[in-house]
């Protein structure tokens, strides 16, 4: 009974107070936690890389830091290179320049890479003359070999099991990151090609035709000056107005290609500047506002929303016959939304669907491509004689805005 009473008393004390349990976490759990933390850090670094080259650098640097290797090489298409390394764009090196000169390990990587990719497992090789060893981890996605991640160290430098596991997981992660970065680059190239086609088409339909008309007008003035100077004076006034319009178009193209003010002023102020320079005091009333706590956005997000906002404003100015246009940038948790609303003619849903196809003059397809490249969306709400609303939603990571 005494023992039962003592146990009951201990239980009651446990309910009233925190009890320190006699449990010690094994060292293996601490190592696993460090491994998970390192992989999480690597994932964040690689995800923030702007392109394939940036992804390669991030992977190599994370591999060197965690394993404390003397040198790390990440080489793409290593299995296909028969002599030395591939082009410089396809490999990165991290480590001290004076340690392990490239002359000897560059000759070893192609054969080592082929062996690791064929076996789909890490492969180690010791080189006596160099008093060093190499550990190659395959970088592949399913059946597609992409390259190899190589740790280079002196003979006395050891790697733990956690280091090898980290390199193996990082190699798999690197493959997915490289493929994603390639897809993003292709998307950007496609978007640039679409932009070039749009600008060329607009210049052909706008500036080129206007300059041709001005040239004809000046030639007519030259032929008519002697017999009808009053008519020439009136025609020159028309030509001057055409020139002013063409100059405004040229300025708009320049700002489209090189929005330098975006970096200096931020999103909304850059849009205001564009409106002042390209529209002036003519046309409908344009209101630009912000909602939510303002924050400086990442460069790619700012550029995306700037171009979408400018395109939506241009559409409303050119096609809507609107009296009032409003642009609002709303900053929210983890995302930013840009909305452009006009009270113009609008269009039917069928026209909206047609306008979103490539090759149209409204540019709605390009807006959608810009947003989707950053994981966002663009929604267009319109109805005949009911105006139009363009709403672009783009996610923003918490770290990016910091």
Concise summary:
This protein is α+β, with helices and mostly antiparallel strands and 402 residues long. It has helices spanning 2-16, 27-47, 52-67, 102-119, 161-224, 229-257, 260-265, 267-278, 299-319, 349-355, 364-373; strands spanning 71-76, 91-95, 123-127, 132-141, 144-154, 285-291, 324-332, 335-342, 377-382, 388-395.
What are the salient characteristics of this protein?
11 helices; 5-stranded antiparallel β-sheet; 402 residues; single chain; elongated; 5-stranded mixed β-sheet; Heat Shock Protein 90; alpha+beta
Could you give the topology of this structure?
Elements: H1 2-16, H2 27-47, H3 52-67, E1 71-76, E2 91-95, H4 102-119, E3 123-127, E4 132-141, E5 144-154, H5 161-224, H6 229-257, H7 260-265, H8 267-278, E6 285-291, H9 299-319, E7 324-332, E8 335-342, H10 349-355, H11 364-373, E9 377-382, E10 388-395
Structure write-up:
It is elongated and about 95 Å long. The longest helix is centred in the middle third of the chain and has 64 residues, at 161-224. The chain has 2 domains: 27-184, GAF domain (Beta-Lactamase, 2-Layer Sandwich), CATH 3.30.450; 260-402, Histidine kinase-like ATPase, C-terminal domain (Heat Shock Protein 90, 2-Layer Sandwich), CATH 3.30.565.10. It has helices spanning 2-16, 27-47, 52-67, 102-119, 161-224, 229-257, 260-265, 267-278, 299-319, 349-355, 364-373, and strands spanning 71-76, 91-95, 123-127, 132-141, 144-154, 285-291, 324-332, 335-342, 377-382, 388-395. The chain starts with a helix and ends in a 7-residue tail after the last strand. It is of the alpha+beta class and 402 residues long. Helices cover 54% and strands 19% of the residues. It is built from 11 helices and 10 strands. Helix 2 (27-47) packs antiparallel against helix 3 (52-67), helix 3 packs antiparallel against helix 5 (161-224) and helix 8 runs parallel beside helix 9 (299-319). It has a 5-stranded antiparallel β-sheet with strand order 2-1-5-4-3, with helices on both faces. Strands 6-7-8-10-9 form a 5-stranded mixed β-sheet.
